[in-house]
Amino acid sequence: xxxxxxxxxxxxxxxxxxxxxxxxxxxxxxxxxxxxxxxxxxxxxxxxxxxxxxxxxxxxxxxxxxxxxxxx
Length: 72
Hints:
Blueprint: E1 2-7, E2 10-15, E3 18-23, E4 37-41, E5 44-49, H1 51-70
Antiparallel strand pairs: 1-2, 2-3, 4-5
């Protein structure tokens, strides 16, 4: 997800039309800024990633959803 707003250890993030509030608590010590991409798991940012890595992850996720929808 891409960070849209930061408030302390919380960030408002968005990806593919979905917005979530995400905890940055596990990313202490990592420089985080608005516009950065983070991997999110159960409401926590767990890893900073670059834009290409984010796009690749979204493509894989879209492929998984498409395969599930078709029963493949």
